[in-house]
Amino acid sequence: MAVHTSEIKFEIGLDENKVPERIEWSASDGGVNHAVAKGMLISVWDKKDGDTLKIDLWTKELLADEMKQMVHQTLLGLADTLERSTGEKEVANGMREFALDMGHRLKILKK
């Protein structure tokens, strides 16, 4: 029986100082043939070491307010992931409350 595989590909264009200038990506099963991004946050669970490996990249074009929104939305997404994968509703709600407070403090949410 053949195993289906899926590919997610990132291509990072760097300047002479190895600072990202361009982030492009595609996902074979996600219907994304080619997309451009200003930033990305990737976390991968390392099975062998039992630790999280992270890649955080952003281009010079990503504005500070956009980074604030990206981090805020990522926290909300992590709360959803935690609840869906573990059933930890109370902790997930606490994360959402923190993200809401953070959004107000960063002035990316209106009260």
Overall mean confidence score, pLDDT: 95
How can the largest sheet be summarized? 3 strands, antiparallel
Helix content: 25-40%
Domain module tally: 2
Percent of residues in β-strands: 25-35%
**Secondary structure tally: strands:** 5
Provide a count of the helices.
2
Numbering strands along the chain, what is their spatial order in the largest sheet? 1-2-3
Structural class: alpha+beta
- Broad shape: globular
Order of helices and strands: EEEEEHH
Question: What is the CA-CA span between the terminal residues?
Answer: 55 Å
- Which ranges are low-confidence, i.e. pLDDT below 50, for 5 or more consecutive residues? none
Q: Which value, in Å, is the CA radius of gyration? A: 17 Å
Any overview of this molecule?
The chain folds into two domains: 1-61, no CATH class; 63-111. The strands form two sheets. It has a three-stranded antiparallel beta sheet, with no helix packed on it. Strands 4-5 form a two-stranded antiparallel ribbon. It has two helices and five strands. The mean pLDDT is 95. By secondary structure, the protein is of the alpha+beta class.
